[in-house]
Amino acid sequence: MTTLVEQDAARPAAPSWGLARRTLTADPEVSSRRARDQIAWLRDYGSRRVNSFLIDERRCIPPHIVQDFGLAGLFGPLIEEEYAGTALRFRDMFRVFEQLMAIDTGLGTWMTTSLFPGTRSLSVWATNEVKQEWLPLLATGRTLAAYAQTEPGAGSDFSQISTTARPGPGGGWLLSGDKHWIGNGTWAGISTVLARTQAPHTARSSLIALAVPTADQGVFPGQEHASFGQRGMVQSRMRFTEVTVPDRYVLADGDGRGVAMDSMCASRLALSAFALGALKRIVQLALRFAGSRTTSGMTLKDRAVTRGWLADTVARTDILEALVYDLADRLDAGQTVGLEPIIAAKVLGGEWAVEAADRLMQLLGGRGYDEANMAARMYRDLRVYRIFEGPTEALCDFLGRRALRQTGQVTAMLRDQSGAQLTQRFEDALTNRPAVKDGAPDAPHAPVATALMWTLAAGAVRSHTPSRPHARHVAELRLQHALDAVRTGDGLATTAPDDLLEQAVDRYAEDIGDVVQELPGMHTDADPLLLPPQAPR
């Protein structure tokens, strides 16, 4: 039995600035049972069949994990039952995500890439013909999906995309361009590609989203990126050279901008759920070690600095949990969730998870720096959460600008999410903020963004964690501090004159020079004498 959470889910309307479910979900009891079964399976499987150290060292996820995840239905939560998916509700899906992330931070993040945005762009926006062809394969892990948006000159700002799609002479589209940092890029069987077009029948957007089978002529997998963390997941370049894409592979009737917005919203919210699972695991490990490690006759757990950090991290974890599952419940109820709370969950979750991983390494001392333990790998894997789907600084700048320039829309959202009382406090802080000094137009954005995020967090805690007074206490303190910063102007960025920076760099060059390493790297190109005459050299 399925539940329709969006009218006309088989062919949804153009996406708005926000996130909605947009697909059929399983009956609540069925969804909950499937999630429980998957969590139990992961706990057993993770202890017997996952070696995170070897995945990290070999920079590759073993094939058996992909196959077993497919058999267990882990690739199917966003795919309707009609196409062999598990069709989980968001709350149930996020519970599974938490468990996977607690087992392996690399596998959890790889799942984000595979599902959000890989599968969702097809399960929501593809034509029925493409869904029938590809979704059963994706649901069972027989192939993987990728999402190609990022370019050398365009990241989360998709307005800078230069890949082009022009109408083909016999119909369809001709796709050309280069992408990089594409998760699953060289593994995927199909990729959603964002491209720019000026075709008249896509006037709703200058962007188009195309589903492109990676075995098609003109699709070339590029070099893989040797990333700092997430070493098991492939991230690579992709090149598209005059690739012929039939019209049936156009997503969302040509509204590529809408697909991109939907993808980023879904991915950001999923990342916050994965960050939540990482935080819980970090607290678990930290408390276990702190209770066992004794220095100068006292356990680390009994030391004030450790207890203070652990208490603050538990409060942050509870706050993030309230925010994530508040949004999940709204989506499961058929509501559309706005950009602001999704960004707040992503930023707070990402920042807190990275900080907690760093503090775990510090707590473990030399053990934390030892690759035989998991702390170093967790830190490397989580560090990208401050960057994926928009860096923290860019997202905070966006939130601050939006609150100051579209105050009415933002406060209306806040009343719905956090209630009238908290919204009024936020409005009062905006009204009483100091004037911006000349030459510092960006100064107010970060403090306003922080106040907005804590208003959302405090509202979620009030609604969802009444039995956790410590979390509410911390949320209220942080909110008040953030509102005070907006009123007083504390924490506003100060700018340095350009000549000061240039002079500093000149001084440093005298001290340390400006050495560029020029030794060649590893030779990987085949000898030209071994290539056929027509092969590129």
Description:
With 537 residues, the chain is α+β, with helices and mostly antiparallel strands. The protein has 16 helices and 13 strands. The chain has helices spanning 28-49, 52-58, 63-71, 90-103, 105-125, 128-139, 256-292, 304-332, 339-364, 375-383, 392-405, 407-418, 420-431, 445-464, 469-488, 498-512; strands at 2-4, 18-19, 24-26, 145-148, 164-167, 173-183, 190-196, 207-213, 219-224, 235-245, 294-295, 298-299, 337-338. A four-stranded antiparallel beta sheet has the order 5-6-10-9, covered by helices on one side. Strand 11 (294-295) and strand 12 form a beta hairpin. Helix 8 (304-332) runs antiparallel to helix 9 (339-364), helix 9 runs antiparallel to helix 10 (375-383) and helix 13 runs antiparallel to helix 14 (445-464). The longest helix has 37 residues, at 256-292. The radius of gyration is 24 Å and the shape is globular. The N and C termini lie far apart (57 Å).
Low-confidence stretches: 1-15
Radius of gyration over alpha carbons?
Answer: 24 Å
Shape: globular
Largest sheet: 4 strands, antiparallel
**Share in β-strands:** 5-15%
- How many β-strand stretches? 13
Structural class: alpha+beta
Distance between the termini: 57 Å
Order of helices and strands: EEEHHHHHHEEEEEEEHEEHEHHHHHHHH
Number of helices: 16
Mean pLDDT: 90
Strand order of the largest sheet: 5-6-10-9
Tell me the helix content: 40-55%
